[in-house]
């Protein structure tokens, strides 16, 4: 297996290089040059497998010869020991043929743990082999950064650097970010939006100041973030139909990696017949799916804060697939987007995407109504991000006989204050006194301050 850049097929890399990277050298994203395809019969045989064994079956073609089989199996087994449920990602039924796939049983109670826990172990494995040091870099509006900090905490060869917006991170996540061990974590509060933080990370990769220390991305720009999510679709499909029954998924737009991973899972052989993207007021993805109009926007604050942004890096990988791996077309589209902040794709490719993908923008009022109605009718508590997906699934599913699965991205305890106010959860207990964190505050585009901090490592 080898990988190429979405912007140049001439840029090639093996799996090890991809794991230990941020962006491709030309600014694109690494993608596998080809995809493994599994037969229905082959997938059916996986129904009895434990989660780590299923993960090995799905992931091993992407890893190729980069890691010996026994080593990879050991890494995967160790990865999923960090999750606090026997099923790793259990399904909970919320209505007739409607389910929530609970992805929040990891250490930080967020779906981000699936990518972070795997990535940390892969990075540690390869850095040990190379005898190298690294800084793991990314932008966060809370959960992605916390998952990376927790996962890489035991990776002695690396430090974590997070950029986050000074306004827009929920208070509990902000406290945890500020409480991170400064000996292991460099934190920068950026006087801008989460989208600004992402842009700064991309620029930092292009201008990395440390010659002898690798820069590795912890956001889903790194292929591992996608690969870890693909397994989840196989897991759910096997539980609800042995991998041969058609199935649909509803995905809250806290990342495009999950959407792209579902699309790839279908191309690998899963009978996925619908993907619904749910957004909040920050509806850039909904506008793309609904009108073929994607644009950078000022983020609005909502009750589902992990979805309060407009730039989705993995959309580039999706466009690369839609355009039949035409790297030059993708480069032209992304160059135009970076200049104008607007993107539309060729109508035939947009229609191709619409054959599988629908979308719906959910208001805060609808989100709250869905949380309270589901609790009233079933006693089940969901967080506001999952609520957008559950509502979109019910309103926009194409078939009542096809199981519809919403990705439950976050544990309800991460929205405890809101849910307590709605009467569906006990009020959160105040945390004991914490030491005050001292992240550096910087302005948008201030890479000089970051470079000076890195030089002191």
UniProtKB/TrEMBL annotation:
Gene Ontology terms, MF aspect: threonine synthase activity
Organism of this sequence: Metapseudomonas boanensis
Name of this chain's protein: Threonine synthase
CDD domains: Thr-synth_2
InterPro entries from the UniProt entry: Thr_synth_N, Thr_synth_N_sf, Thr_synthase-like, Threonine_Synthase, TrpB-like_PALP, TrpB-like_PALP_sf
Cofactors: pyridoxal 5'-phosphate
EC number: 4.2.3.1
Pfam families the record matches: PALP (PF00291), Thr_synth_N (PF14821)
Source superkingdom: Bacteria
Family to which this protein belongs: Belongs to the threonine synthase family.
Record-annotated Tryptophan synthase beta chain-like PALP domain positions: 97-395
Enzyme class: lyase
Keywords from the UniProt entry: Lyase, Pyridoxal phosphate
Location of the Threonine synthase N-terminal domain: 2-80
């Amino acid at each position: 297996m080898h990988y190429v850049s979405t912007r140049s097929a001439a840029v090639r890399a093996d799996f090890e290089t991809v794991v230990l990277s941020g962006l491709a050298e030309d600014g694109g994203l690494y993608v596998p040059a080809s995809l493994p395809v599994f037969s229905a019969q082959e997938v059916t045989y996986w129904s009895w497998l434990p989660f780590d064994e299923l993960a090995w079956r799905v992931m091993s073609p992407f890893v190729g010869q980069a890691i010996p089989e026994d080593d990879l199996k050991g890494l995967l087994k160790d990865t999923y020991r960090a999750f606090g449920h026997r099923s790793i990602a259990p399904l909970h039924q919320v209505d007739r043929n409607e389910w929530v796939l609970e992805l929040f049983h990891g250490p930080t109670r967020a779906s981000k743990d699936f990518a972070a826990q795997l990535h940390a172990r892969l990075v540690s494995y390869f850095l040990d082999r190379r005898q190298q040091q690294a800084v793991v870099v990314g932008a966060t509006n809370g959960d992605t950064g916390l998952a990376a900090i927790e996962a890489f905490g035991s990776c002695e060869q690396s430090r974590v650097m997070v950029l986050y917006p000074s306004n827009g991170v929920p208070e509990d996540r902000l406290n945890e970010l500020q409480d991170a061990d400064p000996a292991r974590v460099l934190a920068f509060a950026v006087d801008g939006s989460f989208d600004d933080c992402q842009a700064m990370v991309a620029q930092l990769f292009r201008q990395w100041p440390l010659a002898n220390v690798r820069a590795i991305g912890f956001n889903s720009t790194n292929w591992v973030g996608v690969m870890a999510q693909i397994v989840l679709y196989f897991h759910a499909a096997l539980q609800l139909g042995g991998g041969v029954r058609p199935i649909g998924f509803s995905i809250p737009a806290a990342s495009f990696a999950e959407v792209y991973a579902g699309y790839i899972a279908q191309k690998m052989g899963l009978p996925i017949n619908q993907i619904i993207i749910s957004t909040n007021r920050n509806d850039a993805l909904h506008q793309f799916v609904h009108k073929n109009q994607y644009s950078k926007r000022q983020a609005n604050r909502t009750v589902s804060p992990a979805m309060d942004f407009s730039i989705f890096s993995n959309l580039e990988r999706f466009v690369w697939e839609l355009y039949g791996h035409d790297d030059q077309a993708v480069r032209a589209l992304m160059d135009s987007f970076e200049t104008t902040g607007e993107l539309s794709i060729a109508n035939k490719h947009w229609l191709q995407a619409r054959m599988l993908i629908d979308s719906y923008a959910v208001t805060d009022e609808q989100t709250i109504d869905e949380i309270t109605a589901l609790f009233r009718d079933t006693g089940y508590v969901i967080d506001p991000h999952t609520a957008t997906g559950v509502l979109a699934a019910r309103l926009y599913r194409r078939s009542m006989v096809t199981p519809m699965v919403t990705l439950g991205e976050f544990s309800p305890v991460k929205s405890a204050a809101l849910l307590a106010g709605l009467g569906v959860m006990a009020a959160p207990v105040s945390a004991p006194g914490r030491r005050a964190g001292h992240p550096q505050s910087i302005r948008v585009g201030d890479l000089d301050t970051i470079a000076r901090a890195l030089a002191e490592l």
